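Hi support team,

I'm opening this ticket because the web form for multi-chain structure prediction keeps timing out on my end. I have pasted the exact lines I submitted so you can reproduce it. The total is 687 residues across two entries, so I didn't expect it to be a heavy job. Is there a limit I'm missing, or should I split the entries? Thanks in advance, R.K.
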Amino acid sequence: MTEENYRHVYVVIEHIDGKLLPVSLEMLGEARRLFDDFNARYSSNEKIVAVILGNNIKDFSKELIEYGADAVVCADHPELKDLRNTIHTKVISQIALDKEIASRIEPDYAKEFKKPRYIFFAADSIGRHLSSTVLVELESGLASDINKLVIHDMTVTHQIKTEGKPTLFKKTLEMYRPDFSGFLWTTILCLNNTTPSIKREYYPQGCSIIPGVFEPIKPDPKRSGEIIFYEPKIDENDLKVKVLSHKIVKSEVDFEIRKAVVSFGRGIKDAPDENIKLVVELAKQLDAEIGISLPISKKLLPASQAISSTYMIPARVIGTSGSKISPMLYVAIGISGAMQHIAGMQDSEFVVAINPDENSPIKNECDIFINGRMEDVIPLLVEELKKQQQVVQAG
Amino acid sequence: MEPLNLAVIVKLEPDFSEGNVSYKPDGTLNRNETKSTLGPHSGIAAKAAFYAKVKYGAKISVCSMGPPWADIALQQAQQTCDADVLHLYSDRIFAGADTLATAETLKTGIEKMQGKMDIVFSGHRASDGETGQTGPQTAWKLGFTFIGNVISYDVNLEKRTVVAKCLLTLNGVPNVIEEIEAPLPVFLTIDPSYKSNFTTVSQRIAFEKYQKEAYERARNFKQSLKVFNIDELGVDKTLVGLAGSPTIVYQVERIPKGKATRQAEVFDGSNSEHIRKVVAKMREALSAMVIK
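Hello R.K., no limit was hit. The queue was backed up. Here is the completed structure from your submission:
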């Protein structure tokens, strides 16, 4: 087998309640940028294949092509209306291995095609799990929660994978994952098996992509592409799993309707309950919604049940793992400013940071840096806000 | 009716709680100085299994792949769910495994447990890197129906089915809660917002009884513990550890600091004149007409 047997990038599209999720178009945008460059460098003509499963979803195909797909594989079937892991995993895997589909995508390589070269999923509640099960079914490697992708030929020396010998891996996808702290990047590679005694081929190279990281391309209504309808083979036995209900829940947190957002981070640690109360007081004065940094949502700081279940929840996280916001005023309290947080707030109009450490990265991302501890600064701010408010009312 | 046979997969992780975690000056984790503990998401998975034990009666086995000292994670999990059996899969060859290879080890271990499993539980993700693949990958290898993001569940013992409520968090659209029914066996990954709903007096009595038992068992946890090396587990060597991992960690680097996007004006937080100016600017920002 050569790497020529593995072709294209398959992008698994997500949609819910009749709408494409933004991350689907973001993935297509990044795939387009990667593949325009890839095809130029390698003088090839590999494609971006959007894979979409559902019921009554044919109308999405045109939009997916406008946003960068060269081909759309559409599995439209009443039993695919709901998302059921087993059925979806099997149908995506069928599509990935289907030679008939491959021959429609690129007739010249119809005979050689074995598997997709790369496969992209979204790193959300749907894609994280689907990517995991599909990559087991296809017996290949997966890197999750990726926010940067690079493709090139790499020579890798690895004690076990290459028995210590420098080995060339062509067209390798470098998958960058930010770690939990937001300060480190781990590069993950899915390298094909080089041990002849083991009959395995580690393709496709799979990843799940963090929503909100990549930009979609500008849709082009003139773009054309191949639309392929696939009749899924569904196992009777898998139909015993049923989705009994599907409810949209309104979040108790709404960043959109407020002009201001006040967020806090690990800087509250000395007295979580008291400090969060201070933050709440400041937010009240500014009529602001309350946000948090990612580590706070992990509930590792001791706080009372009432405080923690109201404020230390994932719905409040600002950043790549939470919401991307652009309020008129953003106040960052005790937040050091890891990249993944910055990505969520950098579009704010005006940014104020309160922090005792002038070397924290947040200083480069704010308009006003108040040097001080929140315990000291917030009460002064609250008092001054009340005072200036009164002046306005009196005037 | 047969009692339920349950397994829980847990992981030893760095203890990120304040006082136990240590960061280097550059903000990255100092692994040498940081203690290890049962991962918080693993703890929630154990709690979810305990719910079934209290409500329906069950036998619980907890397993983990890790170094010999990962037995403390099993002990902590036992204290949470009153486990009957603890399995540790520990061998140098397992080290460096990616999630596919880890799933192979765990699947082999679970299939070795006594009786056929009805429900296997795992956490939503690990807090130190693994991003939630191991659960679904183990499920697929076991051939169990996978249900993720579970916030509550119940079992119908007569029909041998489970009904689980799942929270889907998606970007750009409101969250969704789905209710899924599936015949046993199933594999559930438990969402951080999971809650056990004990409603009746008899459940509360059972809860207290098993909690006491759990405390006693955990004190003598080595009596329930069995450690397996690769040969004892009987797993295919080419499918586990680094050899069985399609992916490798190629490098770890610092994420380059972004260029300063704003030029901050620095104010002294203890100076009342400074505070007055800051508040004036904040109010100005809020009253500005923004044309987008």
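A quick check on our side: Chain A touches chain B through 119 residues (CB under 8 Å). Let us know if the file doesn't open in your viewer.
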